[in-house]
């Protein structure tokens, strides 16, 4: 992938630029998948939208990283970049690394990248209906991969497809394998997509809002299923979601995104107990809860910034209740705030102090 | 009690299932909505929850007259919705608006956001004189949390959540009396969801709007709804005030639904009792006899297969064999189960 040189203004997050030292990795171990310093732009009519501004995260085998963030914060673009399915143009990767088992996919050859994607890393998409091809049967779409990538015979591929549909608990898999996506319910389509993504035994699964469109009993089944498959295969999982409830139930670590960067990363228990970034705190406060019927929900005032004109200083400052002059001037770096935790805020120490 | 603005009685919507290429025969009926009754009071929000495919969207579509009803009636301000035509129908189309579920397909990809939101003003020019429209569109964009400078963009240039806000702005344009919201905030992240929910609540107070609020997120439904109806396979299985449904559910399906809601507190992981329903929702072409939930119900008995439990209040018309925990008057509410019973501590 030709990275088109660095952006005109060098991005000012020196610790992010150092891929050798992602802050939350155990000493010495190379993470299974590590994204660092990732910059992506979209060239639109209104100008250049700086959609990713130094994204970094990593996931290890058997671990679930939840990527949490508002709509438009760049969660899907990051995932699509990792998967190599970013539409270029209008998008351009201007800097960064995506390492799978230490190997940078952005500088690898096209055929090597294709190999890794699908077999090393697979993805479940936000929108199952548009990710499945409506003119082919569900079985055919799974078998196609197996025949092309694994060289399986038609008969073996069919057998394996049925096994996979069985694995994701689609009832009557033998009959269902011949059906078209529109003949499946929403929950079954999501299961079919999971089956498809598992066909090549990936080591990392990126799940982009896999249950957003589903009802809770189905969501619970799908999350159980994903957790079980992950445990069995010791898979790393990147779970993209905006649902703080789902995150609390399944994630090991959380990376919070805002305006194309990670603003906080921590293990799930400490971040819920004590958010280390004003944005994380605001997100948690604005959530309606089943055990509450409040009059008014706390909201975050204003809007996420336009990515064609990200404000100077901390990108969250126009909406931040804690903003001070420094925040309008200087972009805070993503720095350690506690054991295994990082946050990009000039005042994070105050958040960590007051309990 | 305030007066009902919408009265729905025994509403049925069946879709024919056809087979054959040349001679298309009807081989069955999808019983998408199969006998639903409820009142929506002025200024009230009625929440509707239920699993995918249970008929929530079909209910919305029929009430909007986007699909003809198979049978049943629906009165809007005393007028039969299904027999309106001409100017009365035009009026109805102003008074009842819908916010749709799917932000990917509900917006015309070839229209700019400004045109999409402004389109209702073209159809109903009396609402906004031509000179005011640009300003109104910008105001609406602002109200739903979108930047007014994006007025000339196309839907594909927005993320899913941003597109859903466009749909809400469009529904708000004509200042309707009733808004049917079909999963209006399920694609939104929490901060914007909170803004939109506060906005919906605020608009409701200000203009005494009434909402039918369909959502899969039970926390969201609880937050906005005065009363809640729980749907399963084309029927309402339980109906009550927000407090009755969430604190004192008596239908096994409602209890399972509530226990599946993820709780945003990692320290409770693995500590809650979660009722995991097995199996899929049966086909609405041939729903189970008697109680439609019986194929997934852990309490099912012989009676459940032979007799359909009506949606009635067991406190006022007790059913034989029912074990109603007597005394708690406030908890008694309609539940379509032969054995309605509170389950202590369903919500953690
Ligand atoms: N035009 C149609 N022709 C045939 N069947 C239909 C049609 N529209 C809906 N159905 C069927 O009616 C039932 C109810 O559908 P509906 O979409 O209203 O449910 P829902 O509860 O809103 O589900 P979801 O949340 O998945 O949209 C489903 O079984 C569906 O397949
Ligand atoms: N094809 C495109 N053209 C222009 N901007 C785009 C395009 N695709 C995405 N964007 C912008 O990139 C940002 C991040 O989008 P996305 O990653 O889809 O958000 P989300 O976090 O909701 O998944 C948004 O501001 C969006 O408008
Ligand atoms: S750096 Fe300043 S503006 Fe940014 S989050 Fe921290 S306090 Fe708020
Ligand atoms: S009527 Fe019977 S099957 Fe239906 S919900 Fe009640 S106990 Fe379960
Ligand atoms: Mg997305
Ligand atoms: Mg629906």
From TrEMBL, chain A:
Location relative to the cell: Cell membrane
Keyword Transport: yes
Membrane topology: Peripheral membrane protein
Keywords attached to this entry: ATP-binding, Cell membrane, Membrane, Nucleotide-binding, Transport
CDD domains per UniProt: ABC_NikE_OppD_transporters
GO MF annotation, one: ATP binding
Domain of life the protein comes from: Bacteria
Matching SMART domains: AAA
Residue ranges constituting the ABC transporter domain according to the UniProt record: 35-284
Chain spans, region Disordered: 1-23
One Pfam family per UniProt: ABC_tran
Keyword ATP-binding: yes
Family classification: Belongs to the ABC transporter superfamily.
Protein name: Oligopeptide transport system ATP-binding protein
Organism: Actinoalloteichus caeruleus DSM 43889
From TrEMBL, chain B:
SUPFAM superfamilies: P-loop containing nucleoside triphosphate hydrolases
Keyword hit for Chaperone: no
Domain ABC transporter: 6-258
Domain of life: Bacteria
PANTHER family according to UniProt: D,D-DIPEPTIDE TRANSPORT ATP-BINDING PROTEIN DDPF-RELATED (PTHR43776:SF7), TRANSPORT ATP-BINDING PROTEIN (PTHR43776)
Family affiliation: Belongs to the ABC transporter superfamily.
This protein's name: Oligopeptide transport system ATP-binding protein
Organism expressing this protein natively: Actinoalloteichus caeruleus DSM 43889
């Amino acid at each position: 992938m030709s990275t088109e040189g660095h952006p005109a203004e060098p991005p000012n997050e020196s610790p992010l630029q150092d891929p050798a030292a992602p802050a939350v990795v155990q000493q010495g171990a190379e993470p299974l998948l590590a994204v660092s310093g990732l910059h992506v732009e979209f060239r639109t009519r209104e100008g250049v939208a700086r959609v990713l501004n130094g994204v970094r995260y990593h996931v290890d085998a058997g671990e679930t990283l939840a990527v949490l963030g508002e709509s438009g914060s760049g969660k899907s673009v990051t995932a699509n970049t990792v998967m190599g399915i970013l539409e270029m143009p209008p998008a351009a990767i201007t800097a960064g690394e995506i390492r799978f088992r230490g190997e940078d996919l952005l500088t690898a050859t096209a055929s090597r990248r294709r190999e890794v994607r699908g077999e090393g890393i697979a993805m479940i998409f936000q929108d199952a209906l548009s990710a499945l091809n409506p003119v082919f049967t569900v079985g055919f779409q799974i078998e196609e991969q197996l025949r092309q990538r694994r060289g399986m015979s038609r008969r073996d591929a069919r057998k394996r497809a049925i096994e996979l549909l069985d694995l994701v608990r689609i009832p009557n898999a033998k009959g269902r394998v011949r059906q078209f996506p529109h003949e499946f319910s929403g929950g079954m389509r999501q299961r079919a997509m999971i089956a498809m993504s598992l066909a090549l035994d990936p080591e990392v699964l990126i799940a982009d809002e896999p249950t957003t469109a589903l009802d809770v009993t189905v969501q619970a089944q799908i999350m159980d299923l994903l957790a079980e498959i992950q445990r069995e295969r010791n898979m790393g999982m990147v779970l993209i979601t905006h649902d703080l409830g789902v995150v609390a139930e399944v994630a090991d670590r959380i990376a919070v995104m805002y305006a194309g960067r990670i603003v906080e990363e921590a293990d799930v228990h400490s971040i819920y107990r004590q958010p280390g970034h004003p944005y994380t705190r605001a997100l948690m406060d604005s959530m309606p809860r089943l055990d509450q019927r409040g009059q008014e929900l706390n909201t975050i005032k204003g809007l996420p910034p336009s990515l064609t004109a990200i404000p100077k200083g901390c990108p969250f400052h126009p909406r931040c209740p804690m903003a001070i002059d420094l925040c309008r001037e200087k972009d805070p770096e993503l720095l350690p705030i506690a054991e295994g935790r990082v946050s990009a805020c000039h005042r994070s120490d105050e958040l960590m102090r007051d309990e | 009690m305030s007066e009902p603005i919408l009265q729905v009685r025994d509403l049925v919507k069946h879709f024919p299932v056809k087979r054959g290429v040349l001679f298309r025969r009807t081989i069955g009926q999808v019983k998408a909505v199969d006998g639903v009754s409820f009142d929506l009071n002025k200024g009230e929000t009625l929440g509707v929850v239920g699993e995918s495919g249970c008929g929530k969207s079909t209910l919305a579509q029929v009430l909007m007259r986007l699909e003809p009803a198979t049978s049943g009636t629906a009165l809007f301000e005393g007028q039969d919705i299904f027999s309106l035509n001409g100017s009365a129908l035009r009026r109805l189309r102003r008074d009842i608006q819908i916010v749709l579920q799917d932000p990917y397909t509900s917006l015309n990809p070839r229209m700019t956001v400004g045109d999409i939101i402004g389109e209702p003003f073209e159809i109903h020019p009396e609402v906004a004189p031509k000179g005011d429209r640009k300003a109104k569109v910008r105001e609406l964009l602002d109200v739903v949390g979108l930047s007014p400078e994006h007025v000339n963009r196309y839907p594909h240039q927005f993320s899913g959540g941003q597109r859903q806000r466009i749909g809400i702005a469009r529904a708000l344009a004509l200042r309707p009396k009733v808004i049917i919201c079909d999963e209006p905030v399920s694609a939104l992240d929490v901060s914007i969801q909170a803004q939109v929910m506060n906005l919906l609540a605020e608009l409701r107070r200000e203009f005494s709007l009434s909402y039918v609020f369909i959502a899969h997120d039970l926390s969201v439904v609880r937050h906005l709804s005065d009363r809640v109806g729980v749907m399963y396979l084309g029927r309402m299985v339980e109906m009550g005030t927000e407090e009755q449904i969430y604190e004192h559910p008596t239908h096994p399906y409602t209890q399972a639904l509530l226990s599946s809601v993820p709780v945003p507190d990692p320290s409770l992981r693995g500590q809650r009792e979660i009722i995991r329903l097995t199996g899929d929702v049966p086909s609405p072409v041939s729903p189970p006899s008697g109680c439609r939930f019986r194929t997934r119900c852990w309490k099912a008995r012989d009676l459940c297969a032979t007799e359909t439990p009506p949606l009635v209040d067991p406190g006022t018309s007790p059913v034989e064999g029912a074990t109603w925990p007597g005394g708690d008057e406030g908890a008694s509410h309609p539940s379509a189960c032969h054995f309605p019973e509170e389950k202590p501590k369903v919500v953690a």
